[in-house]
Amino acid sequence: MAYLVSSFHIREKMEKKVVGIVGLGLIGGSLGLALRESDKYRVVGYDRNPKHREEAIHLHLVDEVVSFEEIERVDILFLAIPVEGIISALNSFKNLKEDITIIDMGSTKREIVSAVPEKIRKNFVAAHPMAGTEKSGPSAGFSSLYKDRVVVLCDLEESGEKQRQESEEIFSYLQMRILYMDSVEHDLHTAWISHLPHVISFSLANSVMAQEKRDSILNLSAGGFRDMSRLAKSSPRMWRDIFQQNRDNLLHSINLFQDELNSFKSLIANESWDDVEEQMKSANRLHEIL
Amino acid sequence: MAYLVSSFHIREKMEKKVVGIVGLGLIGGSLGLALRESDKYRVVGYDRNPKHREEAIHLHLVDEVVSFEEIERVDILFLAIPVEGIISALNSFKNLKEDITIIDMGSTKREIVSAVPEKIRKNFVAAHPMAGTEKSGPSAGFSSLYKDRVVVLCDLEESGEKQRQESEEIFSYLQMRILYMDSVEHDLHTAWISHLPHVISFSLANSVMAQEKRDSILNLSAGGFRDMSRLAKSSPRMWRDIFQQNRDNLLHSINLFQDELNSFKSLIANESWDDVEEQMKSANRLHEIL
Lengths: 290, 290
Prior knowledge:
Two copies of one chain form a homodimer. Chain A is an alpha/beta fold. Chain A is built from twelve helices and eight strands. Chain A has two domains: 180 residues, 3-Layer(aba) Sandwich (Rossmann fold); 103 residues, Orthogonal Bundle (6-phosphogluconate dehydrogenase C-terminal fold). The N and C termini of chain A lie far apart (53 Å).
């Protein structure tokens, strides 16, 4: 017993880094759970939704819930909120710890990077973890969300040396694979590989639900619809902002997808079955990639 | 030891029903594996591809591989081949066992049902198991593919009483949930819930692969593309026939999906973000269904 108490005291004396998380939904909550498993970090959180703050305590996502003012004093501050909120938050901090590392976890990068106030540019690291589910809110969080996934760090040459190291260290602790990318490039690629698929899934879900009754969907959905509509359950609040910030790239990708679908439809309409089969064989090349 | 030998003899003496499977890919192979686990069935198979026949033996998908002529003499005959092949097969049998039950496992039903020769109509049961993966070929088979899934039986009032009972019994043995549906209805619903999602996935895969390099796809695909492109790995041979047989319903569903996507795109182009969010909230109603 004496041993346990003293061991507890020694751990408490270690200099734990204080991590703050703004936004305690799927992304922030999972982060809190994962970081709390380490002795190196003490985790405090803030969410402007009082229900989320209560849930975060109840679900042990953070060690403590603090105010927005208090969270400016942490060592490493994660912004895990919708991307328009990230831009507002970056411009509303008043009393940040001088050498703080601020890491945003948003799905777009170009507009966020260009909105960072000059005086905190060195403190800032732009990150996009390629991890998530269609669920949202504090109860959606789980500690292994980030394990073995990719995190893209953008425009890292504009971040301070300390901030670069600290972010690489914390993402390595999360067992993530770090990729480096220009923020403009990032937004081009994610338009195709993430944002367009979401647009399609939302539209597919709406068009199928307009035509088909609940029972048919439930009974027949093993035939493809279940997978193709999973993304359509994603948070409208979060995706509204993403589409807004990556609008031009997204519109371009939608247009080219529409061309592709239209030409596939024409082959079906014209009963050019050999060409239909060729198009599908071409799509099958995915087997070599994923 | 004596006990085991005698028990073996008793089992051998039981009248096993002989099940024949034409097509030893994912669908037929999985069926063979599942039925072979029972004492009630002896399973023989045929595939016109010699490699598939060899693999089927090697993988123990069937007890024996037989010729196309021999397979007409079984008690229950499954057709697990592309849907155009089903129509050809139904019209090429010459020496079927008199009270045989023939069950087709195709993804379309209307054209198949109307192509069944009158003299074997009572022998025929039209089935569509709502189960499958994007993989194909004998090695893709696994014995639990059908467990807890739905099987749709169409126009069952046109099948004979014995054939109805026998098909219900075998699908129950597979632990499937049986739904009854008109074949015209079936093709309408599956156009929306299965065939349209496949068309979209093939088109998405082709448009993304035309724009994005292998590495970007591999690294960033957790953001939605992986799910949305899984169906694009499906068998072109199989889907060509399905699109051909369900062409009109499919074209109608593609048109309505295109309208939906187009209106969603316009909202994004016009920066009507509140409406964009409303559309996504509407899609979120899926949470109540799936």
